[in-house]
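Worked problem 6 (solution included).
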Amino acid sequence: MEDQPICQHEFPVLGSAYFLGGRASTSVKRALAECGVENDVIQRVSVACYEAEMNVVLHAQSGVITVDIYRDRVVLNVFDQGPGIEHIHLAMTPGWSSASDEARALGFGAGMGLPNINDQSDEMDIQSPRGEGVRLRLTFLRGEA
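Solution. The predicted structure is:
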């Protein structure tokens, strides 16, 4: 794999800012297109990025999404400053949710975020040391660029 990205971007995410949810993932989608990423890869990254962004909005104080675009892959990193995920194996189960009543009242918290993220990415690494937030690294392989 190539060592140097051809494009790099970073986007902040504000926790509990439901009205801003989707802004970072829209910016990621635009950056991918501007860097010549294939449409099918853009679609997969966009779905995963939106789910990850909304997890930050729903569960953390703040976070950041970075995207590194290489000729052979796209790497999306999501870091948040929240409580973390106590039971990652449960959070990976479709339908399991720890969303607040407020988030559910707004139509969020169906428990499909991490399963959808996992389905869209080629590689997913999630780390959540207790009380230290969540670190999510997603890799999406590209065809011939």
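Discussion: The chain is about 35% helix and 25% strand.
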